[in-house]
Amino acid sequence: MVECADLSISPSDPPLVAIALGSNLGKPLLQLRSAVQVLAQTPGIRVLACSPWYRTAPLGPPQPDYWNGCLVARVQLSPWALLKRLQAIEAQFGRQRQEHWGARTLDLDLLLYGDCIIRTPDLTVPHPRLAERPFVLLPLAAIAPHWRHPLLGETIQTLRERVGDAGIIAVLSDDADETTFATAADRPLPEPPQ
To answer: Under a CB-based contact definition with an 8 Å cutoff, are residues 65 and 24 in contact?
Structure first.
């Protein structure tokens, strides 16, 4: 099933997409920043905004903490071509798909593709757990608070307020590194722009 106001890609008005980034193996922040650079240099993708980085407790089996963030981009790629590109970038960074919710060098998830609702065997948009994950909603609300969830009709900011900040350990501005982050107890989470 695919529901979109318009799935055609116009060069003058390419669709907006939201992509989540996460990493907890190797050098997570370096890998995340490098992934943003790779995405920005990819033909058909124009990165518009990147959130601060959030250190979060992992879900699933015992593993290191994650660093998570989101970016918003305009794309000249179909949802399926974008998914394949994201998976190719993950593989470029050494991602191995062995364990559900397991540790990873890089995780790239297509969260939103314009106002599209896509339910196919290989792709689900909006991301099925977008509305319940603080580690996705906090960074996304920092850069796209007014974007409406196509299924729920609620803004990202409203969803973010509902889930709170459970599991968030630290927030890191993009010009800092892992050794200079402030813990959530030391520094309040930023309020998204109004």
So the answer is: yes
